[in-house]
Amino acid sequence: MNKIFNFLFFTAFYFGSIFASNIEFEADKTSFDTENELLLLEGNVSLKIENLLFKADQVSLDNKNKVFSSEKISFSSLDDFLYGQTKFVSISENETIMRDVEFSSCPCEDKIWWVESEELKFLNDNNTLSTKKSKLKVQGRTLAYLNNANFPISARRKSGILLPEVSINERSGLDVKIPVYLNLKENLDLTLEPRLMTQRGYGLTNQLRYLGKSYEGYFNSSFLKDDESSFKILETDDLRWSYNFFHEQKFRDSIFLNFDVSSSGDPFYLSDLGSFLSGLSRTYILPQKINLDFFRKNLVIKTDLNSFKLTNPLAKNQFQRVPGLQMNYFVNKDNLNFQLDMDFAYFNKGGAFRNDDKQNLLRINLKPEISHAFTKNNYFLKTSLSFNYSYQDFNTQSLGKFLPIINMKQSLRFFKKTEKTKFFIEPFLNLVVSDQKKIVNKEKVDSGLKLSSINEGQTFGDMFLSYQKDVNLGAKFSLFDAEKRKLNIKLSKLYTIGIKSLFYENLKIDFPDPFSLKIDLRTDERLHFVSKISIDNENNFSSYKNTLKFDLKDYRLSLRHNLIKNIQIFDLTETSLNKKEINSLEFTAALNFSKNWSAGFKFIQDIEQEKNVSNVFSIDYENDGLIVGFAYMKTLELDWVSILENDSFKDYHKDRIRLFFELKGLGSIGRPKENYLRRRNL
Fold first, then answer.
1. Mean pLDDT across the chain, nearest whole number?
2. Which of 4, 174, 303, 527 can bridge 198 by disulfide, Cβ–Cβ 3.0-4.6 Å?
């Protein structure tokens, strides 16, 4: 009976009117001083109060004053999110009060940071510690004085003000964001982020998230009262805005619904100011789509409304599916397969901010296909026969086409194995034959109808071309050894019979017929080299893409070089198609100088234009308790104001400087450095 005493037992006999029933305790030895009304707990004392666990060598519980005390009492949250020590604890039914307290949530053996407080109060029905007259200390030095402050007692979400983000740039001046997090329900939360820019104006961003058993989603929105005069050319109000609504839901096990709707008041809002919507895909294309999908064993049905807004102010309206219906039915028996594909879609042009081009299109595609796969030893042969029917009603002009297609793929693998190595050679031949003599679609719609062409068709702007006859001949070589070194080589040559160029209005578009080489070499875990080469002497086209990665324990380097000669690019200034050269170099490095210090660097150079596209530099110090660092970014961006006002194509370099500071377990000031360069991974 002396090893463990249950709290309810003592409640009945000694403290029935004093202590709350939410206290549990254990001890090696217990005794009771009836004269002073003290309960003495000795040896491995443990007391649990709501979400707090107290431990000590000796504790006295004073019945009269309702306190327990000892020379040293340590405490922690049940999930080890927060821990500390105190000398005085007062317990009542509603709250727990501690005095002369030190505590921290730093996940480190030796505390890097901690809070010293004269008084700490824990409400038993709450999830927060409130303090009075506190000091925030980092490695023994006082960083800040906190008169009244609240701290979470666990990693569970809790409403409160998050640490602010501060940055400075030439255009916006001092930029301050102060996020406020509201935990509305277990499955519902809201983040509000007031924003003030001294040279531009003020705004607000919010993010509402929800989660259910069969659904989840979020609604993000932001606005800014912007006084920046350069955007008056957009013919918009000073109030600039954007939003994004995403939802996905599952009905039973076979029906899925999701929609993703985004918009902004002007094409520059996201790239200029950023928000929850920021990101490469969101910057240039704002989706506005709804999908409803049905799945069965051999049947897939998909319906969609798929539109978008283009934030490039010079972009023309593009075809958008409003709506579309796709069906796929398939049966597999032994090596014989039957498949039926159907695509129905109605299109109209839209999406551009400054273009009123209006066109409509109705398209129906029907494609049954039967195929047979034959495999014996190392030989593989797959033959398919399909019939494609395409109907289009475009600007009151109707056109129906019936097209047979024969597709044959074959390969033969030879291999040799030794105790240390494996060597494979696999020659292959792919043949596609159809009676197609013209463009399938004069106007490309959505992804178009890509027939079973080896090169999967060629695309440009609104147009689509599928070759009438293709032959692809080549071979694969592979070498592996026990040290995980490997070498893969793929050689191939595409032969196109028939159409090799397209005349569209005043443009002539050539399609390359290349020889291709791909080399993938990994000598060990440190060195990886990939090279992709495509050459077409007839059209004077060539492409060289090389990547070299070198990875050590503390140093990781990456070098990428892209060279494309005589690629056809649409020139916005001349509204024409010209052959140009793309030549770019990208270098990235992540360096860990010591256990605590690291740096990162990223450099992108346009060699052809002799322009520095992007520079990013980051250096940081990190230990078990904190991260502090500096990041500098310099990016080349188009001056859209000059383009729209003067039809003058100019670009400029945007410079940004950010400081980041994070106390692990407490929060961060500035954007987390992972937004720039990861510490140990590029």
1. 75
2. 174
